[in-house]
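ok trying again, last paste got cut off:
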Amino acid sequence: MTLHATPRKRPAAWLAKRASGGLVQALLVIIGLLWLTPALGLFLSSLRSEEDNATTGWWTALADPAKLSLDSYTALLQDSGIVQAFWNTVLISVPTTVAVVVIASLAGYAFAWLEFPGRDWIFLVVVGLLVVPVQVGLLPVAKLLGAVGLFGSVPGVVLFHVAYGLPFAVFLLRNYFAELPREMLEAARMDGGGEWRIFSRLVLPLGRPAIASLAIFQFLWVWNDMLVALIFADSESQPLTVALQSQMRQFGSNIGVLAPGAFLSLIVPVAVFFAFQRHFVQGVMAGSVK
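nice, full thing came through this time. structure:
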């Protein structure tokens, strides 16, 4: 008689089985609700009057939702400074994201599949720029932008974000494009396809998950930035983060502007994330399963 030993379960398989249980899922739901509590409080505060926010906590609105109104948002839209700051944020975030994605896509394809002198050394320089903190370049770039007349303007802020967003973007897309099958690109070249046609018709569609992930990261980084805007933007070109920060000096009397303004600043990147969520997940999981 042949005895077969029962295979022992690996610790990873045991943990995976336990993690799929209902208790763990319920715990994750509770953690998610706790994580969303500050956002809920901010939203309810933006719908309450300044008097109610000054006297009671935001959670009291759950007992009397009839007092909630959109008056704070109406007043916010009538504040020319906040409205201008919001459009400045859009004018900074959108062009920066588009420029970084376009330039990094072209550079990533060149570093991955084109042969030219010094390619590997140039790519090493790009990788080395990843470790340079943004604070190192604030003063030199400020002097440079001042010399060309762009300091304190929206284009100056955009140029700074593009310059410091490109190293990571090129590194990410180059590594993603390099994983594409060589046989597929060689077959396209044998069929008479030029480099631009291969890039636009083949590489870009296949690289959509990584490009979408990069666009989300870049947009969120620029939209929520305050350090660069504090230095490079003046009162006419300041984004929403700087405008709200200036309101914090008089927090008690400006809660009617801060709460709806902060929630508006929050909801836009959240909407962008959920709009590209499917591509973002594909980009994060790319290469994890062969």
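cool. The two ends are 41 Å apart (CA to CA). Residues 129 and 167 are 6 Å apart (CA to CA).
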